[in-house]
Amino acid sequence: MVDETLRQDGVGQPDALDRLWTPHRMAYIRGENKPSDASSGECPFCRIPGLDDEAGLVVHRGELAFVVLNLYPYAPGHLMVCPYRHIADYTETTDEEAAEIADLTRDAMRVVRSSSGAAGFNIGMNQGHIAGAGIAAHLHQHVVPRWPGDQNFMPIIGRTKTLPQLLSETRELFAKAWPA
Q1: What is the average pLDDT value for the chain, to the nearest integer?
Q2: Which strands sit side by side in the sheet containing 79-83, from one edge to the other?
Q3: Cβ of 135: how many Cβ atoms within 10 Å?
Q4: Range 169-178 average pLDDT
């Protein structure tokens, strides 16, 4: 939805920018289910490995890192590759951790592509709060599958994000497709 009332700069002149409202993201922005203090032991990426795979939405466990579905996905099948070790910055990874994160990222792309026909991917790490990291205290790499037309009118006009499958079903599909 474009809101014409906000299309003005500080002196009432139109700024030529459209505003697209995405209220479904407010749970994420408000920090729901986010640790209040990184030192308190509430880090979800440290807590998840202690859960069973279904409860934690874990798709695959490696030796130094694991793959988990994003609880607030940008697109269906949005995965994250996380080291087990609680580190914030990519430069803090060991050579072995960096190599396993890269290998798991490639495997994640292959699994998602073969399971759901993803046509492309956005892959990246947001380093620090200022760069957009929702949980800056624990390194995690996003693997976001993309399809033609996946950002259609639904989230923009209908203010609805369509996820065609429950997260638990997506986790099971990807876990079964993961290479041995």
Answers
A1: 80
A2: 58-61, 65-69, 79-83, 141-146, 120-124
A3: 19
A4: 88
Could you give the number of structural domains in the chain? 1
pLDDT for residue 153 is more than 60: no
Confidence of residue 42 (pLDDT cuts 50, 70, 90): confident
Residue 57 included in any domain? yes
- 7: in domain: no
Is 140 an annotated catalytic residue? yes
Range with the poorest average pLDDT among 3-7, 10-14, 27-31? 3-7
Q: Which residue of the set 60, 78, 138, 140 is catalytic? A: 140
CA distance 124 to 8: 33
CATH number of the structural domain spanning residue 95: 3.30.428.10
Q: Range of 62's domain?
A: 42-177
Q: What pTM value is reported for the model?
A: 0.71
Token output for 134:
């929702």
Residue with tokens 């991917």: 121
E strand or H helix that includes residue 58: strand 58-61
- Is residue 90 in a domain? yes
Structural contact between residues 49 and 61, judged by C-beta atoms closer than 8 angstroms: yes
